[in-house]
Amino acid sequence: MENDSKPPPLVQIRGLSKKYLIKKSLFNKEYFYAVNNVSFDIQSSSIVGLVGESGSGKSTIGRLLLKLVQKDSGEILFNGKNIYKYTKEEEKQFRKETSIVFQDPRTSLNPRWKIKDIIEEPLIVHNFPKKERKQLTEKAITDAGLDTSFLDRYPSELSGGQRQRVAIARAIVLSPKFIVADEPTSALDVSIQLQIVNLIKKLQKEKNIAFLFISHDINLVGILCDYVVVLYRGEIMEKGDKEAVLKNPKHPYTKLLVASIPPKSPKERKNFKEIPEVFREDIKEGCVFFHRCPYADEICKQKPPVKTLKNQEVYCHFV
Length: 319
Fold this sequence. Notes:
8-stranded mixed sheet; Rossmann fold; alpha/beta; 4-stranded antiparallel sheet; 10 helices; globular; single chain
């Protein structure tokens, strides 16, 4: 929920939808909704966690927010202005103030380029002077936790964690206000994941960057984020302050996600409960979680209302 005392959000998403044509006949078209009527805000200098299973539409939302794919309906406001109504100059400024860190640095970094060329590329695109480019490139690599000696290496000479730091350095070199971090830790060893999470937290505090942190790892979301949006099949199940959503989840899907986190203590693992598999016929209308929900009833064949609580919103009939 939004607090009246907060400043206006940096990013506002209203009724965002993206669909793909999957079947076409003479009289009928069938669509798959990757994102369906999604709305939430991202405050300046905050980290919003977008969590859900693979295929829930998380990465699609990240790309929609940066106009890497085109929406079908809804609004995206950046600094209070609709990003689809930009002039050429506003579009250029938007590109400068936003960036993305992709999931796998092995595929997002050009293997033929040296690290300095990879980080410097956004500066060249935005016509920065050559002397300034060198200085900003060196600052970006050190801010990302690597020494300037790495600038003369190639991505193949770096470890996975080092490559992801290079990707982060490229994302921050223009001093953006907003970064989409699309599963930035999923291709890394567990020991390196926390380092990248701590780096993101450090950059947020020191540079006042807002992040959309996309992940299927609810543990990392709990460590890093201020606000959490839970997604399933392209629709929001629950959203709100981290403490409320993760410590007191209300939606059955969020409860199952939280319950699926393995206990830290070996003694507690004896009582660990897996997510129950519910085999139920899918429905075209109503709650998208109907086919797996342990509490589903006839009323769930209708679209669930939004229940507004103190620090969270829940899309469920039974709250």
